[in-house]
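User: Hey, quick favor. My workstation is busy. Could you predict this chain's structure for me?
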Amino acid sequence: MNELKRKTIRRLFFTIWSAITIIAILIVVFMVYELIQENSTLVNTIINTSPQKLPDDSTQVSHNKSITVYVLSKDGTCLRPLEIQVEWKTSYQENCRQILNAMKNIKVETYVPPLPEDITPRGVFLTPEGELIIDLPSLIITKYEKNTTALFESLFTYSIVDSLLQKEVTTDTVVKGVRFLIEGSVPMVEFPKHISWSQPFTPDYSLICSE
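Assistant: No problem, here it is.
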């Protein structure tokens, strides 16, 4: 009788243990399945919501366009209009880069480009608020920190502002002003010394040569 009880208990224990094992396996399988489903959903969400790669500048439609820019007169007293040819693209910021590069490479004795040939802007950006950011390298300080005047600094500033904010350049883009930075920050007193670059600038054509 005792032997029968022991066999019955062993069988009952084995049955319970088998049931627990099966349940545990089913739980693990279910959890793995749920994890796979969640990861699959997450991957699909990431794929579907990832920003699309923007076309690089080489894929933009471009053509040559005549643009009037404003450069310093030889005597440094006013701004003179000069017509140049630039490769015109669909991006306003890229067109600004094209114009700045063309302006610094002007080889005309009677005109002085605002940017020296060896200075290239670190960046040209348009903020969502419509502010055009011109980020210049610190080399500009080395070039202009000595022997500058308020007139020169004004001519330098408005040569760029007047050239980039004219309607022929902005076309349908809303641009409220130009803000200058040096190495990504508002410039200190090294350059410019006589005017403030702490605020954005709008065009001022009063500095254009009268003759």
